[in-house]
User: What shape does this take?
Amino acid sequence: MPGLGTSFGRGGATTFQQDLQNADCIVIQGSNMAECHPVGFQWVMEAKRRGAKIIHVDPRFTRTSAVADVHVPLRAGSDIVFLGALVNHVLQNELDFREYVVAYTNASAILRDDYADPEDLDGLFSGFDKDNRTYDHTTWAYEDAEAAAAAGDRQDHPGDDHPGDHGGEQHGETARSESYGSGGATMRAKPHHDPTLQHPRCVYQVLKRHFARYTPELVQDVCGVPPELFAEVADAVTRNSGRERTTAFCYAVGWTQHTVGAQYIRTASILQSLLGNIGRPGGGILALRGHASIQGSTDIPTLFNILPGYIPMPHAEKHLDLDRFVAEDSGKTGFWGNMRAYTVSLLKAYWGEHATATNDYCFDYLPRITGNHGTYDTVMRQIKGECKGYFVVGENPAVGSANAKMQRLGMANLDWLVVRDFQLIESATFWKDGPEIETGELTTEEIATEVFFLPAAAHTEKDGSFTNTQRLLQWHHKAVEPPGEARSELWFYYHLGKIIREKLAGSTDVRDRPLLDLAWDYGEEGPLAEPSADLVLAEINGSGPDGPLSSYTELKDDGSTSSGCWIYCGVRAEGVNQAARRKPGKEQTWVAPEWGWAWPANRRILYNRASADPDGNPWSERKRYVWWDAEEEKWTGADVPDFEPTKRPDYEPPVDARAQDGIGGAEPFIMQTDGRAWLFAPAGLADGPMPTHYEPFESPVDNALYGQRENPTREAYDRPDNRYNPAGSDVFPFVFTTYRLTEHHTAGGMSRTLPYLSELQPEFFCEVSPALAEQRGLEHMGWATIVSARTAIEARVLVTERMKPLRVRGRIIHQVGLPYHWGPNGLSTGDAANELLSVVLDPNVHIQEAKAATCDIRPGRRPRGPGLLTFMDDYRRRAGVPEEGP
Amino acid sequence: MGARQWFLGWPVVRQATGPDKLGRGAAVQSQRSAALTPRTSTADKVVKSVCPYCAVGCGQQVFVKDGEVTQIEGDPNSPISRGRLCPKGSASKQLVTSPSRISEVLYRRPHGTDWERLPLDKAMDMIADRVIKTRREVWQDTNDDGCTLRRTMGIASLGGATLDNEENYLMKKLYTALGAVQIENQARI
Assistant: This one.
């Protein structure tokens, strides 16, 4: 979540669900929280009961809208205009929380004089390289950033000619911005400030000019939202912010799954920072995540570009050894300045006694990345025959990923595939009954892929921890043994590693050293020889000469400590599994600090130093949370302070201070190099230091603001198996968006086989307005075929007033809603909405644009068998989509 | 049973004349339902757990009898969920006890037209062989500039967001030692 990471320093939700009850206003946008996070939604309803105003901004009227005070229907893909207009409203009317803004954000920082804005360059920021469609970030830096780099080490680094920036092309390609999950981007200098905010090149003034055209009239033109509705939201949000009141924002993948996804979240971050709502009770930005441990699988990543704790995967060209690997960060101010300690401790956890100072702690054992090795890149490599073996564990790409056909074509071209799941999901059976078998594009006998289906153990059958949407680790205990040959992932990977190590024992091949030297001892318990999850957690937590560590501040860079994930250090403080704590909520304060364990350091609201004024006093009695106790000389309050406990509010860092010592006593954003929330991000994002509106890659309209229609740095792959709908195409005139229902989960692998859930939502459907139904001759409960340049799918028709046609750019835009849970297997079946989507990605994290694309819709069922191919040929011809060759 | 007794025993009469005016308790109880006990009360043990679906992190209590999961309910002690579960969480007993759940290893040989059975230990051994072979065949020591790569682009992995932290940890650790870098999960999907 680089939107949050580059703004505040950590890529996790800034607050926790229960804190929503303290909000005076809650804006839910890019999320249907009542439907998708229904139990968490009780805290929104609790706030409403206490008098808070609930606003839902969403293309559809949903279960969330039904209980909100205001529903704002807007066109999918236009959120930056809506949020940008709120920012503009705040700036033009000087409604910002000025003391907070001056003290805690980079509003007063002075930028270079050669920075140019999209307002000057018709939609491009300065530094754009047209040939590579990437930015050189040099001009986005603070003025004199290099010359004024008093804080810390300023040694030069090979390949890094951008002062204070991880640098251009590689940055985006390797998704470096995702490593801001914990620790903001590198600026090796603190900026000059103008606390009066009058300097024409200070961030505040630059921001004001940048958003000046984001007016209520533009919102009406681009989003389809009438000015009076916009005014109601603008009024509610600003009136409910300040010393006495706070507003919270909740979002989900309705914001992230766009070619400008990270910038959606940036816009909300800017707004919340201007309003003084970060780090304070009832404020913040709550990222609502959709899987039990999706936060955990980012913190301890099964991702290509990061190691545990958001340490980046080393890059072949830039990170030749440990010194050069940590150099970018080790000179920094802020806690990321201790990166060497975090990295060495990880290497000690991986390679134990084999990792020593003399061998660079086995840094050379780490494989290197050279570009984008994300899932869609991998699938294209599978299709090319370069990637031959594939593990699919608890995920169902055959129906769950954009352009699902590409996924199946990739899997059909493997040497071997291992699928681990509870049921025979589509990714396990594509060779037998996938859609391409039906059309004749593939035949079972010709598919050479060797498939192993291994049954998986359920959460009730294993010990382990999930990290929920608020960074909270909760332990689940094993209740029963898994059935038959079902095993946990812990068992599978532990034993696979053990067998491979046994087979390679005695190998003198240098490439096998990382395997043979691996610390791989987790015990074997019970009749199944199950490794101990508790021992794995102990390794994640880390230990030193005196046993288990209790905090990441204890980590050392001399090899005396180990920790498998530095941000989780403390989860087993005192050798006790803190994630398994279950002191009943009723026996604790509302913060419930003794239920589970939240990273970092069990803090529930991040940046909570900002809940006090610069002198350390609560901004108001009503919003008291964490404050400086002058008598005790320490920070105290309802939560664990997200600050060094005894650092005085008036602490001024010496000029040569590094790491946390470089952060002043009134700078709450301790993971940022300058301790401040970034309204303007001088580093860290591939597509701009500030958000700016671009149309979705497939959009029915032009960009009202600029000649530059779509994100100039988006990643598009125009190839025969991934054709795009031409922009403004009459053949694909409608907007569609995908979403979830309460009764199913993601691509259905964990829900379509359950009788109760299948009875509640028995089949795939599409939602259309009565006007669109009339226009296209669609009948309620009848069938519709929905078409994109990729393929056609069919769905039952739900005609509903909940879908509102919107007037945008002078014409009526109809939107089609598609829940994406279905596939051909299970009890509740239907076509997969992901068949329709293309692979076109955000340049920061390579996420696909799943929330806004174009389509056609027509009555009746789709053609069967080879007829579908002829049908699609006709559509592509009419739309002018190329048939052959890239 | 006399006529009067029979008449007074009629549920609608009991509802009209007794204290249970809404007919949600004693008035509608039959002999059979009076003798029933909830399966939660006869459980051998109650195990604390967490819902495996979305990321709200609702507390669950797993009721176990004779080594089988008999019921899953919300944990009222959880300060997040306060005992509540959504339809998915409430149905999660069906997730873990589903009759269509697969509990044996299945194998599809290259070009095969149907599944075959394969013992788990044999499958593990075969998978390990394939990992070693692909890793050997598709290996990069350095790039064209001589920079270390030490990796295989022949092996990829997808999934993790539904799994435990400890599992993700072992996955990333083993893949990294293997030199496999194309490791991904739902966070990017």
User: Anything to note?
Assistant: The CA atoms of residues 314 and 366 of chain A lie 7 Å apart. Residues 489-504 of chain A form the longest helix (16 residues).
